[in-house]
Every structure is written in structure tokens, then in C-alpha cells.
Design brief:
The chain is of the alpha/beta class and about 150 residues long. A hairpin with a 6-residue loop joins strand 6 and strand 7. A four-stranded mixed beta sheet has the order 1-4-3-2. Strands 5-8-7-6 form a four-stranded mixed beta sheet, covered by helices on one side. The chain has three helices and eight strands. The chain is globular.
């Protein structure tokens, strides 16, 4: 058995790519527009896994965008904590959170401990960021930041 990908349905593909690709730093590895099914699939991998993903050797995140119906209505999705979260290891938790903030992303659970943070995607999916290796020394402004919203 082999883990392949996690699929997340998104209501706005552009907003989701701005989050996952531009702010979080994932890399688009492939995209399929399926005219017959009226949907688009976009696969993303962590930067350190892109080469392996091209060889089907690394898990990816699949964004599924269902096109609006003939009436122009877009499907809506409700998130739930029962989904849990996606998790990514980062080289520098503080730099990752700073980059996300620069892209307008709220840090719901700041990396006070130099090890873990949580943010939410435009579709309200929780994303956990974990420091690679040992925790970094606590530093400002992170060490005193309070939680914001749910994570």
C-alpha cells in the first residue's frame, strides 16, 4: 500500500492557489481540466518533494475545483474539525509564518514554542506547520502572540 494524495474541494481555485502555492510555498506539479466531468484537478507538492512527486514517489495535495453549473451556481462546502488538518515540515517556522502573514494569512496558532503553528486555507482547512529538527528558540513577536480563531 502506498499513500498518494489528500484531496480538498475548493470553491475558488485562484484564491486557493494564492494560499497553497504563493503563501504556503507548495509547487504545482500537474493540472488537469476535465471537460466531460466539469472539474479541474491541481496537484501540489512541498518544494522538497517536487522531483519525487513527478515520479509518483511522494504524496501530494490535490485541489479539486468543480466548475459552476449551467445556472452559474457554484457548489459550496462546509468544513469540519472532523477532517483534522494537513501538516508540513518547514526549515524555519518563523520565516514560514512571516511569509504567510505577508500574504495576508492569519496565524491562528502562532509558533510561540518555535516548533508548531496553525493557519487556515481560504476553504477553512487547518494547516499545521512543524519546525524541521529541534525547536527554534522562542522569539518575538511570536512568543507572546495569542491564538486567533479556530485552528
Amino acid at each position: 500500500m502506498e499513500y498518494l494524495h489528500t484531496m480538498v474541494r475548493v470553491k475558488d481555485l485562484d484564491a486557493s492557489l494564492k494560499f497553497y502555492r504563493d503563501a504556503l510555498g507548495l509547487v504545482e506539479t500537474r493540472r488537469f481540466d476535465v471537460e466531460a466531468g466539469k472539474f479541474t484537478l491541481v496537484y501540489l507538492a512541498a518544494p522538497g518533494n517536487v522531483e519525487a512527486a513527478h515520479k509518483d514517489k511522494s504524496p501530494e495535495l490535490e485541489l479539486t475545483y468543480n466548475w459552476p453549473g449551467e445556472d452559474g451556481k457554484q457548489e459550496t462546502y462546509s468544513g469540519g474539525r472532523n477532517f483534522g488538518h494537513l501538516a508540513y515540515r518547514v526549515d524555519d517556522i518563523y520565516a514560514a509564518c512571516e511569509r504567510l502573514q505577508e500574504h495576508g494569512v492569519t496565524i491562528n496558532r502562532p509558533p510561540r514554542d518555535g516548533h508548531m503553528a496553525f493557519v487556515r486555507s481560504p476553504d477553512n482547512i487547518s494547516i499545521e506547520l512543524l519546525q524541521k529538527g529541534a525547536s527554534l528558540k522562542p522569539q518575538e513577536p511570536w512568543s507572546k502572540m495569542e491564538n486567533t480563531g479556530e485552528w
